[in-house]
Design goal:
By secondary structure, the chain is of the alpha/beta class. The chain has helices spanning 14-18, 55-60, 79-92, 105-117, 131-139, 151-165, 176-182, 184-198, 224-238, 258-264, 291-302, 311-325, 331-345, 368-371, 394-399, 415-428, 439-449, 465-474, 493-499, 517-525; strands at 50-52, 64-69, 97-102, 120-126, 143-147, 168-169, 215-219, 247-253, 304-309, 354-359, 407-411, 432-436, 453-457, 483-487, 505-508. The chain is elongated.
Amino acid sequence: MLEAYYETGDLSGWPQALADRPFDMWRYRELLPLRDPANLVSMGEGGTPLVKAVNVAAMLGLKNLYLKDERQGPTGSFKDRQASLAISVMKENDVDEAVVASTGNVAIAYGAYAARAGIKLWAFLTSLVPADKMREVAVYGTEVVKVTGTYDHTKHIAASFAQSKGLFIDRGIRSFASKEGMKTVAFEIAEQLGLVFGGDGGWPHARGQWYAPDWYIQSVSGGLGPVGVMKGFKELREHGLIDSMPKFACVQAAGCDPIVRSWKAGQEEATPINNPQTLITTLATGDPGPAYKMLRELMMRYGGAMESVTDEEAFRALHTMAKLDGFSMEPAAAVAFAGLFKLVRQGIIAPHEVVVVNLTGHTFPVEKQILGDEWERSVDLAAATRPAMPEEGLLAALSEIDERVVRVAIIEDNPDAARLVERILQAHGDYEILHAPDGEAGITLVQNERPDLIVLDLMMPGVDGFAVLDALKADESLRDVPVIVVTAKDLTPQERQRLSNQVESLLHKGSFIDEGVMQDIIERLS
């Protein structure tokens, strides 16, 4: 296991020094392990946007949710950072032929940068990697070797081949270059959050303060990404550039989640999964090797969470992010967002916390699991019928309400969430919308305006949704007004019992905007 350490001296003035440098990962060269800039192999990697999510954040009740959009890299994933530094270090050490094992994105990125550096690359990929991704690897002149077996088998075959031929093999998390490339994600996030919370909005300009988020969330296969990113935050704190360390969440596909299972079982060593059962092949690493110990140590030191999500949950999250906020992504990236939804519902992530999710890669259009074979639908208005609605959905709940409903009161403390609910209501019908920003104002509004329907946020400061319901129940003239409750947290049995017979529908934020909403709207309009 190799680690890189730097004799840099005082970096407290780094923010000012960086103001005149290009915004890419190499602006942080003092903390990157390349001695001679002449060996730099770059295609503009890094410098990716940090974008604030709007609609999804509103539905989750989060005030500060940001996406680190790594789709913007030269080959479309955050592996470009790893490849740029790793190939540059190979060039500096006169490596002219190398071997890498991959589930897809690493081979694509390494292939592009190796071609630019004039290094011959052998890429060993599991046969589960879609043929289109393999062809993309081959486009760069990489020698592609397809291994019929798991990714762990593939890594073993690649290592044996490299040894037999006397070739350099990229060792992933065991080498220093891979981790060091990934830590630039942390540098950029801290610098960009400094612009959001401490800057004047211009770019670039000199500032003296960077910020770490409260949470950093990423989908995990072998674990290299979060290990590298957390190393980056650690170095920033050691140099006095940030005041605190983020908690981090590792999210894995449930069909191949050795890190999550081992952590939840309290194990010091990871138990490998020999037969991964996930369609998301880029995350199908059954044996995380030393990464588990490193992640476990980070989790115990800084806090956070490890969570698994099903393939179905990941694909639903993919659709949700695309439909609500316009972010299309590969399934591996969607795993992180599905994990975010779970952690918010479980109350592990609080509404006030600053959350950054790594959007690790672009949409891969030939993945049939994303859209299925029947990805387009026809709407025959002449033959339209009224189908059964999904059990959880704002439009489904509305369909159970009397058609005479005209005035709707939204009691919601998050203005973005209120606007999104209003959009959905307006798509459903011609309603008069009333809005109250908190529970106390909501009670007054309902008493004065007598709405036909109430959409009520349950978790509000001060007078919460439960208190609003109690006030309605105590008023004989209002106790029969139908109420749709929305909440971002998982309710306890006691809370559910308290709501029984008081509300028309109970919906979870983030789930009532589901795949059926657009079709619901079309059928309503017909």
